[in-house]
Design brief:
It is a single chain. The protein has 203 residues and is of the alpha+beta class. It has 2 domains: 108 residues, D-3-phosphoglycerate dehydrogenase, domain 3 (60s Ribosomal Protein L30, Chain: A); 60 residues, no CATH class. It has 8 helices and 6 strands; from the N terminus they run ααβααβββββαααα. It has a 6-stranded mixed sheet with strand order 2-1-3-4-5-6. The chain starts with a helix and ends with a helix.
Length: 203
C-alpha cells in the first residue's frame, strides 16, 4: 500500500476525479469489473485455455456488505464476459484493506491454476503486490490549492487555464465525454464543479 499512499500525496489529472465507467460506485462497481478483465488477461498471457477453467471470485468486507446495492456481483460477471463465474460473499475484511477480492481459476480437476488477490482502493483504482493497476495519470507540478491559486494569479488565469496548461492534451475531450455519459447527474453537482464542466464545453 506504500505506492498508493505516495500517489495520494501528489495532485493527479482531473481524470482521476471524473471517472468514465460503470456505476453506481467507482470502488464497488467499476473497480471489480476492471479487476475481472485484468484477471482474464493474466490467464490469457499464461496461455490458459479459458474454456477448460472454472472461475470463482470471493469478495470481502465492504464489498460484501454493500455489494448487492452497488451491483458488485453484476460488475464482476460483466467483466468475465462470456465466462461463467461464481461469486462468494465474505463479510470479514482482509487486514490490508476492507475492499478485497480473491480471484481463482480452477481446472476440471478442481485444482487452482491461478489465484490473485487485489484491493479496490477508491476511485476505480486497484492495487496488489505488484502495485497500482489501471490508468496512469499526469502528475501536476503543484500539490496544494494555495500553490495553484498563486500560479493562476501570477499567470492571470483560472483553474481551467491551470488544467489546460498542465493536464493531458485530451483532457477537454475526455470531460466532454464524461458530461455526455453523466448528463443527468450533472444537475446535482456543486456550483464550482458545474462551472468547470460548463466552461469545458467552450474549449
Amino acid at each position: 500500500m506504500e505506492e498508493f499512499s505516495k500517489s495520494r500525496k501528489q495532485m493527479q489529472s482531473v481524470k482521476s476525479i471524473y471517472k468514465i465507467g460503470c456505476g453506481p460506485s467507482s470502488s464497488h462497481s467499476m473497480a471489480p469489473k476492471n479487476a475481472a478483465k485484468i484477471f482474464i488477461e493474466k490467464l490469457k498471457d499464461k496461455k490458459f485455455n479459458l474454456n477448460n477453467l472454472n472461475f470463482e471470485v470471493e469478495v470481502f468486507g465492504s464489498l460484501t456488505l454493500t455489494g448487492k446495492g452497488h451491483l458488485t456481483d453484476k460488475s464482476i460477471i460483466d467483466g468475465f464476459h462470456e465466462y461463467e463465474v461464481k461469486i462468494l460473499w465474505n463479510e470479514d475484511a482482509l487486514p490490508q484493506h476492507p475492499n478485497a477480492m480473491k480471484f481463482k481459476a480452477k481446472d476440471r480437476a478442481n485444482n487452482i491454476v491461478m489465484q490473485w488477490i487485489v484491493f479496490s482502493i477508491g476511485g476505480g483504482e486497484l492495487i496488489d503486490d505488484d502495485g497500482i493497476h489501471g490508468q496512469k495519470y499526469n502528475i501536476m507540478p503543484y500539490s496544494s490549492i494555495e500553490d495553484i491559486i498563486k500560479w493562476c494569479k501570477e499567470n492571470n488565469t483560472d483553474y481551467i487555464g491551470f488544467i489546460k496548461q498542465f493536464d493531458s492534451s485530451d483532457i477537454f475531450d475526455y470531460l466532454k465525454q464524461y458530461i455526455e455519459q453523466n448528463q443527468v447527474d450533472m444537475i446535482i453537482l456543486l456550483q464550482p464543479c458545474l462551472l468547470v464542466h460548463i466552461k469545458t464545453l467552450n474549449y
